[in-house]
């Protein structure tokens, strides 16, 4: 239902209220505090928590310039009364708006819309929009008959302090067995739909709306065997030989490898340049980024940088592949995905369950603009015909029963404890003299090394001795920063202490 309210003019103290409809109210006075022109309607996003509904309402109003730069928002108590919600709901929405860079709080004055360049504000979030017609995608299927193989390297045996490995010792195995058992039926012996199991896709729709602000239909989701296959499918569908592809640095080397396997010319682009804004003359067919949480440094692109990327992609007719790495375990509320901000549907979103569930599950997903769905299903049918259905349906049940959300909450708390254990162990070791690059949360941190120290040689020795540290320079082809990427999520506090002690001993020996 649409919320309505009344206004007591006797309490306005000289300020003039103008009522245009039951919810669009403007207060005209010395300081402009008004509501968006678009009424607040909870039914617009019924599946979202109420604070998220308020957040999306104000977010879209800011991006659509219904609320201008510098304008003051109503006080939380006043807005809560007008929307018929609790004050805590409005405060949570304001906190999320401030965290994502839409508003700023001024002590003693209130909350104000930040100053965003006007040319970026056309990229308001959208829900169901087919902004790209099939006719605007020339040569979309030009590579369907010329697929190139890409072999993913074998995974190493588990080691201490290895990044990107979840806490398998804390995985709810009994609940997972129950969901597997409930999924075994003759129906599940049939062919899997090309897009993936229907229950899993429906559950993903609700999860992405709640956690990442992505409002899509289940038909726009494609279940993959992981983020690596997702990248391969996108590259095969969209790229021509010798197309220019930009990949952020630092970044995951597997992304560049997939693009090269598809025949593209890959160029690294610094994370700092992405933060500042890409030059208007820079052209590319595709840009691969982790805007919400960079791997491995954990940085987040500012709101203005994210909007600028969308503006640049539209001008250059470029696709953006958004890898949502590690966002489930970042501190604070997750920010809105770049996909949700793209009006022109230039973004393709990828995610994986390898880190939130367990690596052997081998399930991930793509969120596609509607215009790409037919071609992607055709490619899937040609390439592998779909994935095993049983594990997909079991994961759908795992989410539907609430096990997944509870598991994520438990892991966030556990990983914070293990992260603190790693920081404490480092502080008591010879590594304490080195700076720690820690963006908060996640599953790993980075220990910087002095200039001239070869991180790859050090990591090779550590790996031989059972410590899975990874060299930062291997992820940074542009600057070749030297450092150690240290995971903490898979190890107990005692295991972390032992591993750091051994790491410190090896590090000290290499100095001699």
From TrEMBL:
An example molecular function term from Gene Ontology annotations: pyridoxal phosphate binding
Source superkingdom: Bacteria
Cited CDD domains: AAT_like (cd00609), WHTH_GntR (cd07377)
Leading EC class: transferase
InterPro entries xrefs: Aminotransferase_I/II_large, HTH_trans_reg/aminotransferase, PyrdxlP-dep_Trfase, PyrdxlP-dep_Trfase_major, Tscrpt_reg_HTH_GntR, WH-like_DNA-bd_sf, WH_DNA-bd_sf
Residue ranges of domain HTH gntR-type in the record: 48-116
E.C. number: 2.6.1.1
Keywords: Aminotransferase, DNA-binding, Pyridoxal phosphate, Transcription, Transcription regulation, Transferase
SUPFAM superfamilies assigned: PLP-dependent transferases, Winged helix' DNA-binding domain
Family: In the C-terminal section; belongs to the class-I pyridoxal-phosphate-dependent aminotransferase family.
Name of the protein in question: Transcriptional regulator, GntR family domain
């Amino acid at each position: 239902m649409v919320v309505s309210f009344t206004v007591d003019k006797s309490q306005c103290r000289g300020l003039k209220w103008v009522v245009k409809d039951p919810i669009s109210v403007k207060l005209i006075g010395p300081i402009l505090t008004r509501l968006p022109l678009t009424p607040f309607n909870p039914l617009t996003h019924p599946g979202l928590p109420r604070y998220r509904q308020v957040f999306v309402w104000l977010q879209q109003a800011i991006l659509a310039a219904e609320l201008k730069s510098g304008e003051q928002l109503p006080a939380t108590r006043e807005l809560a009364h007008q929307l018929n919600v609790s004050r805590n709901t409005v405060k949570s929405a304001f906190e999320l708006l401030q965290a994502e860079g839409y508003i700023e709080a001024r002590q003693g004055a209130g909350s104000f819309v930040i100053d965003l360049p006007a040319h970026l504000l056309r990229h308001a979030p959208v829900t169901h929009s087919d902004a790209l017609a099939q006719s605007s995608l020339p040569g979309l299927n030009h590579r369907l008959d010329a697929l190139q193989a890409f072999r993913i390297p074998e995974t190493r045996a588990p080691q201490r302090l290895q990044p990107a490995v979840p806490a398998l010792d804390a995985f709810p195995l009994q609940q997972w067995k129950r969901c597997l058992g409930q999924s075994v039926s003759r129906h599940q012996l049939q062919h899997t739909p090309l897009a993936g199991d229907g229950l899993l896709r429906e559950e993903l729709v609700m999860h992405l709306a709640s956690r990442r602000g992505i409002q899509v239909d289940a038909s726009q989701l494609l279940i993959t065997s992981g983020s690596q296959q997702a990248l391969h499918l996108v590259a095969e569908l969209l790229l021509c030989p010798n197309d220019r592809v930009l990949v952020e640095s630092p970044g995951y080397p597997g992304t560049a490898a997939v693009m090269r396997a598809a025949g593209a010319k890959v160029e690294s682009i610094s994370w700092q340049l992405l933060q500042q804004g890409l030059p208007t003359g820079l052209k590319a067919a595709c840009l691969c980024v982790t805007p919400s949480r960079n791997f491995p440094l954990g940085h987040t692109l500012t709101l203005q940088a994210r909007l600028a990327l969308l503006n640049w992609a539209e001008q250059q007719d470029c696709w953006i592949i958004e890898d949502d790495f590690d966002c489930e375990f970042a501190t604070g509320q997750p920010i809105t995905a770049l996909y949700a901000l793209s009006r022109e549907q230039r973004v393709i979103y990828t995610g994986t369950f390898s880190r939130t569930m367990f690596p052997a599950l081998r399930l991930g997903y793509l969120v596609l603009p509607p215009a790409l769905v037919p071609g992607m299903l055709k490619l899937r049918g040609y390439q592998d015909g779909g994935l095993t259905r049983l594990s997909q349906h079991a994961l759908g049940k795992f989410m539907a029963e609430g096990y997944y959300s509870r598991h994520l909450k438990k892991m966030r708390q556990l990983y914070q404890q293990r992260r603190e254990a790693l920081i404490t162990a480092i502080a008591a070791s010879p590594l304490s003299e080195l700076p720690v690059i820690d963006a908060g949360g996640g599953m790993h941190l980075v220990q910087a090394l002095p200039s001239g120290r070869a991180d790859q040689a050090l990591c090779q020795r550590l790996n031989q001795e059972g410590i899975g540290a990874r060299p930062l320079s291997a992820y940074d082809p542009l600057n070749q920063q030297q450092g150690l990427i240290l995971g903490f999520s898979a190890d107990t506090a005692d295991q972390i202490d032992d591993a750091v002690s051994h790491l410190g001993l090896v590090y000290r020996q290499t100095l001699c």
